[in-house]
Design a protein that fits this description.
Elements lengths: L1 H35 L12 H24 L15 H17 L4 H14 L4 H32 L10 H21 L1 H16 L7 H18 L4 H25 L6 H15 L10 H12 L4 H17 L1 H19 L10 H5 L5
Helix pairs in contact: 2-3, 2-5, 2-9, 2-12, 3-4, 3-13, 4-5, 5-8, 5-9, 5-10, 6-9, 7-8, 9-12, 10-11, 11-12
């Protein structure tokens, strides 16, 4: 009975997760097939657009590496000196490997975060610092994502500019990044402003969820702000800029994908579609939101006036560089890291426990 119970505890959760993932993929399979059915149409796109999109996505990833380096290069306590910042290669390898895992392993971001943390810890970073850094990174990047719809609403209310102005979406991404940095620094420095925002948000949320009050929402917002402020102490402006750059370069890649197809849409509406798609990616039904993001983004692009064919091809082109390409890149990064550890220190180059074992709290 004990043996059977151990098997249930170890494999039961995984079986349920795999079942949910399989059901989710079954539901979105028709949408995925529709998107992949447009694959031959990519040959009609000017070849130079592909490196443009790849560079934009690379810049988005580089912003995350910068953010991670800022979070890791901080004191672990009030009396301890600041540690030496982790190397760019170490941070990039850990992020790429974790990102790839989040796209192929059930559990999505959670599984990817575990692998990213493991790589950083095994290269000498303190476990507590890594945990705090990844938590702060998640908070600040999610905060930027939640801020985007608020900044977009005024543009939607002003009135539609000519649809041919989608090309200005690349400029919009730069302007939005600057605004986000300003608001981020305001939230970090101006306590009263943050409390007021929390109270207003709490009143709105209270209409839907009665257990949330303006005071509780404001207190939670201040608590999260304090965690971010502690993680990026002395580097607030750089952290805000890196978090904004991560989202805006990714959004710019979506805009570039649509411009490459000569699509007609408003940059503000494309931004709203982008935000919703990123929110769908956080739903841990399928790894990385596979299928749900593709179907949701295609439908939203059609809703804002992009033709169905263009929406399908644009979604495929954007997901090619933002979802599919990072998977083999992350696998190569992890493989290179394992080879490097084996060459430099064979005694420590042991096969690591599975991600699922890490999630169960077993020792690395």
């Amino acid at each position: 009975m004990g043996f059977a119970g151990g098997l249930v505890r170890r494999w039961g959760g995984r079986a349920v997760g795999l079942a949910i993932t399989g059901a989710g993929l079954y539901i979105v399979a028709p949408s995925l097939l529709s998107v992949f059915g447009t694959w031959p149409r990519l040959a009609d796109i000017e070849p130079w657009w592909f490196p443009v999109l790849a560079v934009l996505e690379a810049c988005s990833f580089a912003a995350l590496w910068w953010l991670a380096r800022l979070a890791l290069a901080r004191p672990t306590g009030g009396q301890e000196p600041a540690p030496v910042p982790a190397g760019w290669g170490t941070i990039a390898t850990a992020q790429l490997a974790g990102n790839a895992a989040s796209k192929v392993v059930p559990g999505g971001p959670a599984a990817g975060g575990v692998l990213q943390a493991r790589l950083l810890i095994q290269t000498g970073e303190p476990a507590g610092v890594v945990a705090s850094a990844l938590t702060a990174m998640g908070l600040i990047t999610t905060g930027v994502l939640l801020l985007l719809p608020v900044l977009t609403i005024p543009a939607l209310l002003i009135g539609p500019p000519p649809a041919r102005q989608l090309e200005r979406g690349l400029l919009v991404s730069l302007i939005m990044a600057i605004v986000i940095v300003g608001l981020g620094l305001t939230a970090l420095k101006w306590h009263r402003f943050l409390v007021r925002v929390g109270r207003v948000s709490g009143r709105i949320i209270h209409l839907v969820k009665r257990s949330v009050t303006p005071d509780s929402c404001a207190a939670l917002l201040v608590t999260q702000r304090d965690r971010v402020a502690a993680a990026f102490d002395g580097h607030w402006w750089a952290a805000a800029f890196a978090a904004a750059a991560n989202r805006m370069f990714d959004y710019a890649a979506l805009v570039a994908a649509l411009v490459a197809l000569d699509a007609h849409a408003r940059p503000s509406e494309v931004l709203m579609a982008y935000v919703v798609a990123q929110a769908l990616a956080m739903i841990p039904i399928t790894p990385g939101g596979l299928g749900f993001v593709d179907a949701g983004l295609t439908a939203l692009l059609v809703l804002i006036g992009v033709s169905a064919d263009t929406a399908l091809i644009g979604t495929l082109l954007y997901r090619l560089v933002s979802f599919w390409l990072p998977i083999p890149v992350g696998l190569l990064a992890w493989t290179g890291w394992r080879i490097h550890r084996h060459v430099t220190d064979p005694s420590r180059a042991q096969t690591p426990p599975s991600i699922a074992e890490d999630e169960e709290g077993q020792a690395p």
